[in-house]
Structure prediction request, 279 residues.
Amino acid sequence: MLPTVIFSDLDGTLLDHYTYQSTPASATLEQLKNAKTPVVLNTSKTLAELEIINQNLNLNAPFIIENGAAIYIPIGTFEKQPENTQTVDGFWVKSFCLPREYWLALLSEKSSDFSNQYQGFSTLTDLELAEITGLSLDDANRAKQRQFGEPIHWLGDEETKKHFIEYMLDLGANVVQGGRFIHIGDYCDKGQALIWLAERYREHYNSSIVTIALGDGENDNSMLEAADFAVQIRSPVHEFPTLYRQYQTTKTKSYGPEGWAEAIQQLLSNSINSEVNHG
Prediction:
């Protein structure tokens, strides 16, 4: 049986959109841990957030932060340190993006015509972000500790937002619509990070592997397109984003972590490896 690596979004996927809880997926996560199947969190969240969430979910696999901006690999995950990584506080780190300061400067200097249409994370207090998201003050503080991009809370109408996105794209920014925020940053994405890390796992196992990606938002599409199996998690706040791929895809009936667990159980019980080999 080929080794399987699972790549998962968090908000609205493994974590409930409203409560940020993962309880319906707890038994499946424990099953995957016992089977030594890595669950790689691939999210828009920050390092500060991921360190807490990995601890709470009892995960010790690599994780991908800020929409594919960097991969944090616990030292010792692989037999040797992957090339082109840095050692930082117990991790091998592979980064793909320009730092946050570049994008803050670009927004400050070039987007004054839109400045009253949005709030950037860097300008929000912990309390303001907590009120927007429903996060605790501590979690809001961790969410603000970004290294590579700037999420913004859009206040204007959809037509102006469209113009703003086109303008930022013309300035060289990558603009990604997440579950709640627009993310301004470099041209990296969750799919690029998945492809890089999957190759490290192939080298580690010295064999082909099976990749499963699960997500609910537009910013998950690159990850879903890149994996062997794509699982779109039903959202209570938006429709399923459109995927180009038409094969080995699943749309869950249940929301969030309940849909996550159902999809994983179904894929694993359906002998996904034989489908990859013969499908």
Remarks:
- The domain at 100-185 is CATH 3.30.980.20 (Threonyl-tRNA Synthetase; Chain A, domain 2).
- The longest helix spans residues 190-205.
- The chain has ten helices and 13 strands.
